[in-house]
Every structure is written in structure tokens, then in C-alpha cells.
């Protein structure tokens, strides 16, 4: 039974090692990557099945008994999140086959991808706070390199912001772990819960509140909560869409998962004290995220801001803190991972057809690619919360919990943000799918957005060529990018 | 002794934070490094610095008798130092590549992604 707890960690690590061993052999790495992700999903489903039937699974690594060694533990939340990780890993691995160029693939893309999955699975399965820090670092290291892999100017600039803010968050995390150990004398989450909720002296509760706030700030940066989300929209749109898919699916959600885990288990008493703060943060995260999204025209940046906005809903569940609210937040987390990743994947496919990410230069997809339009509309409506789709039930649960708790202001905010989300999704629909594709002048207008990499330029030429419009002005190109270097990035032409 | 360490940790955190807030990318790296040292020293100190009492169980006893130096913070700090080393090495390479690509050592000039 305990083997099931280790498999979701061992399989991605093993896949990464296989990919390192076949460094230059692209074909082998592609097969290994998809097979490894499939095996991860299978092991995760087996784990979920075992947890669902037999209750919480725990394992003491190396045979050291509980508070002394590292504990791996899977309850239903962990198991569900590992299944989601496996599903997104498989989807992302398959998507990468077409979405990642040969140069990135032969410089370690698949290795990093699976190292990232290992880090995420580890973070979901560990029962030890310091071990959580270690898995975070595994995950972050892989994501740092994935973000910068390819070395385009926009990627490097995005990576600097991403790396700097996440390193500060890691330092705060480590500081909090140090103080937590000094206060409690243990780092095992279950042991911490027993010790913290057993005795409450006034002196100890002050220090505990300070530690809880340190964790809140550290995980708040990683989860992109309101004042601390600046790194996300500055960096998530810079790497290829396949990378953005996996980063947006998993990274911020690990931050939210950690908040949920610590604030419902270890800091249950402190959560009461910080509840008003969490409620305000949840509302502000939703509002600023969606307002940022409404102002955007680059579809990847628009969706990146929506990640921030959706984090607000997850935080709302934690802030309300009732069983219904927390359950709704967990359901919301699964829903938003799938919906947001699907939207990013569709935006990548639309980019192949159109050659641009800028909505003003897009258009006509509904007529030329009806299937793609349907694939966009489903997750878009789900994200906005339309009735038969997953987002409706997630938001219904949160709203109901909010009404029961009497947080009418936050409920109003959440519903208002839903309207703005719908508006923002309909903006993508109207611009990229409904209206006819603009004339070439509209396309060259895209040169205003300076962050755009070379594949886009090539696609633009390609789109221009297939549209019979001939050569068009090329947007910003970093001076050190010789054009031929990027040619291998190329995939299917506009007519696919 | 603990008072001295507390002051040192405070000064390190303040220095690190100040450096991280600078505009120069190189100074940000130095700041992150200093912050890491501050956190490590904090873990080491917060759990209590006990000198000359290694955590060894005497041959006739079955459990440790306090006072003894807690080995856990030392293990934590060791792990954190290794992770911090790896991350600093990566950050240096990343910042060097970015400097080669962008040509400036000033975060205010890194606006290509904020359009």
C-alpha cells in the first residue's frame, strides 16, 4: 500500500533521469515523457482509489518513526491533487510534443518538465513542513529553468522577476519554518496540529500568529495573492504556451494548497484571527486580477491576470473557513486547473492558426476553425460560471457558504467579478473568434507590443503569406536574435 | 550570546532587504544571498544554541538527557545551504544571460514584458 505513496514521486524523477540519459535523442525523450506522465496519472488514480477506500495513507520514509523522520501522507485532498497533477502532466506532455521546438526539447525541456511534476507531487504528498520546503525548491528550480529555457529576451526579463520574487518567498518560508521549529520543537504537520490545538497560552499564541503570518506572506507570494502577485503577469506569458499551461495549472495551486493545509490543520486557531484579513485579501485578489485582465489585449497576459483573479475565489473558501466553503474551494481548485489550462492550450492552438497573440490583430476563427471555437467556449463559460459547467457549482458552493457566513460584501464582489470574467471571456470570443480577421494594417499594429518573440514574427509572415497579403512589417525583434536560429521552432502552417 | 546573534540576524535581514530593493540586478542577487544567510542563522539560533553537549546517548542510558545540542536545526540549515547555493548559482547565470541580452543592469529598464 505504501508503495502507492512513493510512486507519484519516483515515476517523474525516473522519467527525468531517462530523459537526461537520452539527452540528444529527441524521439526517445518524447516517448519517455508521454509514457512517464501516463504512468504518473495511473499511479495517482491508484492512490486516489486506495485512499478513497481505505482512508488516509501514511508512510515513514526510511523507517524512522513519526515525528522524527519524514512522513509522506495522502488524504483525499492530496490524492485528488496528485491525480490532477498526473492528468495535467499527461495533457501537458502531449501538448508539448507539438508546442515545444526541437531546440528546447534537446536542451532538457522534458527533464525539467518531469522534475517539476515530481516537485509538485512531493509538495502534495509530504506531511512535514521542512520537506514541503524542499519539494517547493525542486518545483521552483525546474520552473525557473523552464521559464528561461530558450533564452529569448522577454523570457529572460520575465524570469528575473519570477525568480527574484519567488526566492524572497522561499526565504520567508524558510524563516517561518525555523521559528516554527523553535516554537513547537517539531515540523511534522500532524504532530504540530496536536501540539498547537492542545494547549493555548497567551504568550505562545502571539508567536504562533507571527509564524502563521510569515507563512501567509510566503505562500501568498507563491499563490499570487493580492499585493504580491506582480511576478505572475510579468512572466507567465513569456515562455512558449506549453510551458505556461503547466506552470499556470500547478504552481500557484501548490501555494493555495499549502495555505489550505496549514491554515486548516496547524494554524486552525490562528486562522480565526486572520479571517478578516483573508476576506479582504480574497476580494482584492479577485477584483485586481479581473480588472487587470479586462485591460489586456495579449491573450496570454489576459489569461495570466485571470489566474490571479481565480486565486481570489480559492482564498475566499479558505477565508470563510466553514466546511462547505473549504470543500467548494477544493472543488474550485480542480475546476480552475482544468479550465484555465484548456484556455491556454486553445490560445496556443489559435496562435498557430493566426500567428498572433494580440486580440486586435486576431479574428475569424469561428468561421475557419469551428471546432477550436467550441473548445474555447466550453472552458471560457466554465471559468465564468455558466450553469451546466463545473465553474457554476464551484461558485454556487462558495456563494452559499458566503451567505451562510454573512459575508455579503465578499459574495457581492465574487458575483461582480464573475460578470467581469464573462465580459473578459466574451472579449476574447468577439475579438478572436467572431469578428472577421482584420486587414494587414491591423496585423502590423501588433508591432506595438514589444515582448513578442520570433516564432510569432515568423507566423505572422506565414499568416500573411497564406492570406495573400505578402510581406508585412515585423514586430520587435531583440537585436541579438538572428532569425535563422528560430526557424526550427516552427510547426504547422495556418491552414491546419 | 543569543542577544548578539539576534542583532546579527536583524542586521542581515535589513541589509538583505535593502539590497533586494535596489535597482541593480547584481545587488539584488547579493541581497537574496544575504537574506538566505539571515534565514539560516535564524533557524540555527531560534532553536537554541547549546555548546559542547553533542546529542549522544551514553552507553548505559536509553534516551538523551537534556541539555543537548538539537541536531535537527543543523540538518535543516545544511539542507537549506545546499539549496541556496544551487539557486544562487542559477540566478547568477540567469542574470548574466539577461545582462548579455538586454544590455543594462537596472530592473527599471526591464520593461519588455510589461507592455
Distance between the termini of chain B: 52 Å
| Gross morphology of chain B | elongated
Mean pLDDT of chain A: 84
Largest sheet of chain A: 2 strands, antiparallel
SS elements, strand count of chain A: 2
**Beta-strand proportion of chain B:** under 5%
Number of helices of chain B: 3
Give a structural overview.
The complex is a heterodimer of chains A (about 500) and B (about 120). With about 500 residues, chain A is mainly alpha-helical. Chain A folds into 3 domains: about 1-265, no CATH class; about 275-440, no CATH class; about 455-495, no CATH class. Chain A contains 20 helices and 2 strands. By secondary structure, chain B is mostly helical. Chain B is built from 3 helices and no strands. Chain B is elongated. The mean pLDDT of chain B is about 85. At the A-B interface, helix 6 and helix 7 of A face helix 2 and helix 3 of B.
Give a quick summary of the entry.
The complex is a heterodimer of chains A (496) and B (115). By secondary structure, chain A is mainly α.
Layout: helices, strands, pairs:
The complex is a heterodimer of chains A (496) and B (115).
Chain A lengths: L2 H19 L4 H29 L2 E4 L10 E4 L1 H24 L2 H4 L3 H17 L3 H20 L4 H32 L4 H10 L3 H22 L7 H5 L5 H26 L1 H27 L4 H22 L2 H32 L10 H4 L1 H15 L5 H16 L2 H27 L5 H5 L9 H13 L30
Antiparallel strand pairs in A: 1-2
Helix pairs in contact in A: 1-2, 1-5, 2-3, 2-5, 3-5, 3-11, 3-14, 5-6, 5-11, 6-7, 6-11, 7-9, 9-11, 9-12, 11-12, 11-13, 11-14, 12-13, 12-18, 13-14, 13-17, 13-18, 14-16, 14-17, 14-20, 16-18, 17-18
Chain B lengths: L1 H19 L4 H22 L24 H32 L13
Offer a few descriptive terms.
heterodimer, A: 496 residues, mainly alpha, 3 domains, two-stranded antiparallel ribbon, 20 helices, 2 strands, 74% helix, disordered C terminus, B: 115 residues, 3 helices, 63% helix, 0% strand, elongated
